[in-house]
Amino acid sequence: MTRIAMLGLGAMGSELARVQLEGGASVAVWNRTPGKAPSLDALGATRAATPDDAIRDADLVVVCLSNDDATRAVLDPLATRLRGKTLVNLTNGTPAQARRMARWASDHDVRYVDGGIMATPEMIGAPHALVLYAGDAAAFEQHRDVLARFGAPRFVGDDPGRAALLDLALLTGMCGLFAGALQAIAMARHGGVAAEEFAGLLVPWLHAMNGLVPAIATSVDTRRFEGGSSLAMQVLALDNLIEASRESGTDTTLLTTMQGWMRACVDAGHGADDLGRLIDVIRPVS
Ligand code: NDP
């Protein structure tokens, strides 16, 4: 049986520990503030007083803390004691942080797998909870079945920064979705439509618009930007969105940003192209 050390029992770490215990694993848990997640005790968790105690007998060390600073503060003093173990870092971080952690692990003969959790704590353990992994492929394969208890594991490459990159890119897409949804809700509420009622219109609309993303992706990859609604048309339509947004007293930053990207493309002579062309403004070709 794999012996697991779980460092961090916040909202996410406590769920990660729970599914391992329910799956029959032996789990030693540590949290900076003692006594967190008391329900884990009845499931058989071993409480460790220090991170050192938690990892002593573990083959697999899983860390899930607030950020990279916290992770390094906890792991740095453990470097020599982690030798030969597999470290799975599920703390959210940047690709550069993941690569730096991988170099640190390699310097100390620690097998390093970096992870990105694409799920909320309530989803942990469900098949639709996606967890991205990158780094030491052999270590990942060895522990794949154990990691699968967190949610569907997907190994995305040997570059230890790749899971973090994809994680943050996916979260960026989510930010756009939620920011747009909240802006739309604010405008609807100004017109006397309650948020819940409006959501009944908004959600199917966003589902339908999601269906356009694959075509946009193809246009970006192939650099063929014809076929969709023209930017020349859309840049004018944005005038109406921005004016209505102002009239409703809502912040126009999202809309003026989008219109600015469109206008730059139109001014560069790409008014007949579709939305995919915005990629050249968002990330200019070097
Ligand atoms: P919480 O705020 O609930 O927990 C944070 C954890 O980090 C606690 O265990 C806290 O300990 C610990 N911690 C913070 N600073 C230090 C430090 N300096 N030294 C030691 N321990 C420290 O966060 P979550 O559990 O929700 O998130 C953990 C990670 O998971 C984050 O990187 C987050 O981005 C990621 N994540 C979270 C999701 C979510 O929906 N919650 C979704 C996907 C990823 P203490 O109890 O003592 O404060």
UniProtKB/TrEMBL annotation:
Keywords: Oxidoreductase
Coiled-coil regions, chain positions: none
Ranges of residues in domain NADPH-dependent reductive aminase-like C-terminal: 159-283
Entry keyword annotation includes Oxidoreductase: yes
DNA damage keyword on record: no
GO BP annotation list: transcription elongation-coupled chromatin remodeling
InterPro entries named in the record: 6-PGluconate_DH-like_C_sf, 6PGD_dom2, 6PGDH_NADP-bd, HIBADH-related, HIBADH-related_NP60_sf, NAD(P)-bd_dom_sf, RedAm-like_C
A GO MF label: DNA binding
Domain 6-phosphogluconate dehydrogenase NADP-binding: 3-152
Gene Ontology annotations for the cellular component aspect, listed alphabetically: chromatin
UniProt-recorded name of the protein: Putative dehydrogenase
Protein's organism: Sandaracinus amylolyticus
Organism taxonomic ancestry: Bacteria, Pseudomonadati, Myxococcota, Polyangia, Polyangiales
